Amino acid sequence: MPRNLRPLPLIHRNLRTSSMIAAGLLTLGALAMAASTPFPTIAPSSLKIYPTKDGTLIDGGVFGPLDGQADYADWSFNGSSNEGSIALTTSSEHRVVWEYDLSGITYAEPVTASISFTLRLPAIFPFPNSLRVRVFSYQADLMESIEDFASEPATMLGSALLTPSWPPPPASVHQLAITDAVNAAIQSGASKVAVRFQIEPDTNFQVFIDAVDSDPTTKPFITIIDRLPGDTNDDNVVALDDWAGFSSCLSEPTTQYMPGCDIADLDFDLDVDLRDMASFQNYFQSSR
Fold first, then answer.
1. Which of 104, 138, 144, 147 has the smallest C-beta neighbourhood within 10 Å, fewest atoms?
2. pTM for the structure as a whole
């Protein structure tokens, strides 16, 4: 199926350096002789986590100068004002932040995790041919802080590609991997993670997350899956036999994975390619 016909839009991620990919090919290529192991037939347990703290932060506009620091914050989502607005203009920038409490996770780590969210394009003219919403993770404190607008260090999880049109297209659902950030938070003992949405630089446009406090399901949620990333045979170890199953799912980046290969789609972009193989290599020889 052509990628632009999938229900989820194209999710963009930065490729690892070519040297790392080459190293991965050499390392994992040597494992291809391993005997094939069927994928597990029982779906793993999963848990949805909704944000405990969230808000819309604004830099510039009527609130102050556009200087990379927030001048105003709205910590509620009730369908008014600029709530849920992710925007960038010549005079202001809006970012939306979400903080998650991971202390309720009882699964052994490492786990597999993704974040799902819905984006809506407004009826604004003129509009660009396309735009990206970048998604970053950073250290959470489960407090409402205006400093979250530019909190560092922040790691880019990926970006969602949108194509404005007239009439505006329906709101679109997106999914990104957040596995590494969640596992790092659990292993550090912090058990919390924050996520920030912002428009790609040099893009003069606006996107909305139509969240309301009265319905947590309207907000971006993290799904925790009780499975070690890359553990295709569900034996709690990522080893040679997992590579046999994983390699059978490899395909071109623009080709949707084969039925049953969702377990190998480690970055949740509907294919199994070099990005997924790089993630597999990161967890190779891991256990829990």
1. 104
2. 0.84
